[in-house]
Amino acid sequence: MYSQNYSMSKNFKIAVGLIYILCLCLILYGFFIFVDITQLNNYSYIRDKTQFLIEIRDKNLFLFASLFFLFSITWILLLGFATPIALVAGFLFGKIYGTLISVLGFTIGCTILYIFASQYFKDLILEKLSKKISKFKEIFNKNEFFYFMIFRFAGGGGTPFAIQNLLPVLFNMKVKNYFFSTLIGLFPMIFILCAIGSGIEKIIENNIDPSFLAMIQNKEILFPILGFFTILIISFILRKIYFKK
């Protein structure tokens, strides 16, 4: 019986790995079909592509936003980074709606990933991560909701986003605490990133000179960048206070 269960578990993990690779390949294929990377330094090309996306958005905003929301969840499940999706969300939907779509999508994606990993990959995660980040386990056991919220806000103490999502598997965090601490902890930084994305959209829409100097002088970009560095400074302080080695 044990041998049979082990074989089924191994086959399931192989199937998940194959599905992961397939989904990732499909996303990359779609990206390279839509984007010519040799033209990414061409402002006219970027403006035309972004205008194409905006036209699609305007034809059916609800459907477009729903698809983007589902994509953001899928992207997190594929262990993707949050930053590029948040920037695009801000560009396409503005800083308010972009933030709401991104934060909720990321939070749901992270929570599903956490539940799935806890159910099927806990042994593997314990084997790979337990010794490397055992200090976090001791901290989170004090107050898992508060410390994980601070951990999210502080950018995971330098921990990659995908690892942040899996870290609570080590200390069996409650799903409710995971969901709300992620929702609150991600909100400030995602808002800043969406505001930057929204500012870039305004620059392209108004045909403003896309040079670095012109962009940072634009208040739509400057204020979010200042906010970004402010959060980095606060995050550094929080890491020193709550996540001492």
Notes on the protein architecture:
With 245 residues, this protein is mainly alpha-helical. The chain is 80% helix and 0% strand. The protein contains eleven helices and no strands. The chain has helices spanning 2-34, 43-59, 61-77, 83-120, 122-129, 134-140, 144-153, 161-166, 175-205, 212-217, 219-242.
What are the segments in which pLDDT stays under 50 over at least 5 consecutive residues?
1-6
Derived structural class: mainly alpha
Shape: globular
The fraction of residues assigned to DSSP E strands is under 5%
Radius of gyration based on Cα positions: 20 Å
Total beta-strand segments: 0
Mean pLDDT: 82
Largest sheet: none
Helix content: over 70%
Q: Helix and strand succession? A: HHHHHHHHHHH
Count of alpha and pi helical runs: 11
Layout of secondary structure:
Layout: H1 2-34, H2 43-59, H3 61-77, H4 83-120, H5 122-129, H6 134-140, H7 144-153, H8 161-166, H9 175-205, H10 212-217, H11 219-242
Entry summary:
The chain has 245 residues and is mainly α. Helix content is 80%, strand content 0%. The chain has eleven helices and no strands.
Key features of this structure:
245 residues, mainly alpha, disordered N terminus
